[in-house]
Amino acid sequence: MTNFVYVRGLAAAVLMVASLAACSSSDDSSSNPSGSTSSGLSASFTKTCASCHGAEGRGSGIYPSLPSGLSEADFISTVRNGKGTGMAKYDASVISDADLKSDYAWLSARK
Ligand code: HEC
């Protein structure tokens, strides 16, 4: 009997987690085939860029949502050269070209 109650509780918990996950995912999951719960952005982005641009690069306030309509080349050159007073420049030791390219692709696909 107690065993039965436990199994029902477990099933309910699993269902709850599944529906929560479905609700909270605002982006098209097909753009994130790795299916990770955190974003598909690079570890470098998460470490260096997310503090201003957000965990999914959506930006807020003075921080633009990325990729902000830029081409991949302009996106990368902005990161390498900085912009205005708020955006520092970051070299490849901070975030590699490969990471920037995959992040650009992810950000472009993000809804
Ligand atoms: C300290 C906060 C901060 C961090 C950290 C930061 N940015 Fe920015 N970023 C800004 C601000 C502010 C702007 C707007 C600058 C402007 O338009 O004058 C900006 C602009 C940009 C732009 C240009 C957008 C446009 O419309 O031209 C890109 C691309 C960008 N950031 C990418 C990144 C990436 C990639 C990283 C991580 C390597 C990063 N940023 C880290 C604050 C930040």
From TrEMBL:
Keywords: Heme, Iron, Metal-binding, Signal
InterPro entries per record: Cyt_c-like_dom, Cyt_c-like_dom_sf
Name this polypeptide is given: Cytochrome c domain-containing protein
Recorded GO MF terms: electron transfer activity; heme binding; metal ion binding
Region Disordered, annotated ranges: 24-43
Residue stretches making up the Cytochrome c domain: 35-111
Stretches of the chain forming a coiled coil according to its record: none
Keyword presence, Transport: no
Domain of life where this protein originates: Bacteria
Organism whose genome encodes this protein: Labilithrix luteola
Signal sequence interval, chain numbering: 1-21
Pfam entry (one): Cytochrome_CBB3
SUPFAM superfamilies xrefs: Cytochrome c
